Amino acid sequence: MNEPLRIIRDNLGAYLVVNLAMYGISIAGVVTALILPELNAAQLASMQEDGTTDLVLAVIGNVWLFALVILGVNTLTVGALAIVLPSLVVPFAGIAVFAYRAFDIGLTLAPADRTGWVILIPHSVTYVIEFQAYILLVLGAYLLGRSWLRPGSVGAPNRRAGYVSGLRQIGWLSLPALVLFVIGAVYEAFTLRYLVPVLIQAMA
Asked: Where, by residue number, does the polypeptide cross the bilayer (predicted)?
């Protein structure tokens, strides 16, 4: 993991800005939903319509299968399709896509009632872990776009070489991101399956 740490250290300013921006956008989504609860209700209704809620209910009884589903959604649907893939085609595109997703996540996470606040207690840890994984990929998307458009910033002679250098950096950052995705998925599955019901019952 020395290379990912080196990349973060060499681009610490960008890493901190990405953290501030993405957490800020997501928290803005939470605040917006608290002010306008109908937005949170619309998010939950959308999850029911697209089958997300039914999928969760179908697999939550098997905690390892539940963790695998969470991991698949986080790595493929958000990480690969929303951040990495758009950035491979259009410079910085994944940053814009995830900024929208971050606000959307905030709308969904906003607690609508007492139960929502209880769930948020353990889920806030999940939020921090998984967002750090997303942020590493967003940082990679930024570095890819920068080296692609300004190859001289990475000592590359042309944009093609800069693109290859950017791919290498996003590839390295994907490794710790994957580790965080795994940790986040297991933690989320176990807390939702075992801890949250106990907390809800204790506060009933």
From this structure: 12-35, 55-73, 80-103, 131-149, 170-190
The sign one gets for the Cα dihedral 184, 187, 190, 192 is: negative
Selection from 121, 88, 86, 119 nearest residue 100 by Cα: 86
Total Cβ atoms within 10 A of residue 85: 14
* CB-count exposure of residue 183 (10 Å: 0-12, 13-18, 19+): middle
CA distances from 43 to 9, 30, 89, 113 (A): 37, 12, 29, 15
Secondary structure (DSSP) of 75-106? IIIIIIIIIIHHHHHSTTHHHHHHHHHHHHHH
What does the alpha-carbon distance between residue 34 and residue 112 come to, in Å, rounded to a whole number?
7
| Domain limits for position 89 | 2-202
Please give the pLDDT value at position 204. 64
* Secondary structure letter of residue 2 according to DSSP: H
Closest to 192 (Cα-Cα) out of 129, 113, 118 = 118
> In this structure, what are the phi and psi dihedrals at residue 38, rounded to the nearest 5 degrees?
-65, -25
Q: Which residues of the chain, if any, have pLDDT below 50? A: none
Radius of gyration over every alpha carbon of the chain, rounded to an integer in angstroms: 18
Q: How many domains does the chain have?
A: 1
Q: Which of 72, 90, 17, 31 shows the shortest CA–CA distance to 184?
A: 72
Cβ atoms < 10 Å from Cβ of 54? 12
166-175 pLDDT, tens digit per residue, is 999 999 999 9
